[in-house]
Amino acid sequence: MSFDPGTSDEVYLTLAPNPDALAQARRLLDLYAQQSGMPEERADDVVQAAGELMAVGGRAHHVLGVAMRDEPGQLSVLVDLAGPVVVDVSDEAEGLLNGLSSQWGWRQLPGCTQVWCDVAKDPSEA
After folding, report:
1. I need a labelling partner for 44 at 20 to 30 A (CA). Which of 14, 27, 35, 51 fits?
2. In a domain? residue 16
3. Which InterPro entries match (predicted)?
4. Alpha-carbon distance 117 to 45, whole Å?
5. Residue 3 lies inside a defined structural domain of this protein
């Protein structure tokens, strides 16, 4: 995992437990990806991958926050989830994440589950 949560150039958005907050997070991801030099279509891929990360575990998880980091050649996205320690990724979601990102995964931390992905800026490097 290339995501380093202690890096000063990350952007972190704390989310309230409501559907509007998820929509705001998606808009922020789209803007951040485009400002990082991604074409609009590739920024859409970042938003879709992040949406899949936000949905792992179904209704059992509440999205606490979303972090983004612009790295050479890729954008890293990290989603903090509250809820059970089981991460349930459907076959369809796993296929989408494998297709949209160069790598993805999750880890358990005290108080939350973190799911993350790295999306290549150039789709040919995904």
Report:
1. 14
2. yes
3. HATPase_C_sf
4. 11
5. no
Per the rule left: phi > 0, alpha: psi between -120 and 50, beta: everything else, 67 is: beta
DSSP 110: T
- Residues 101 and 46: their CA atoms lie apart, in Å, by 8
- Identify whether 81 is part of a domain: yes
Q: What dihedral angle (degrees, nearest 10) is formed by the CA atoms of 31, 72, 96, 50?
A: -40
Looking at residue 62, what is its pLDDT? 83
Return the biggest CA–CA distance within the chain: 37
Q: Which residue has the higher pLDDT, 105 or 16?
A: 105
What average pLDDT score do residues 54-77 get? 84
Q: What is the CATH number of the domain that holds 66?
A: 3.30.565.10
Please check whether residue 11 is in contact with residue 42, taking contact to mean a CB–CB distance below 8 angstroms: no
Domain coverage including residue 108 = 10-120
Tokens of 114: 């973190």
Q: Give the global pTM.
A: 0.84
**pLDDT single digits (tens) 19-58:** 788 888 999 999 999 998 899 999 999 999 999 998 886 6
Q: Is residue 126 part of a domain?
A: no
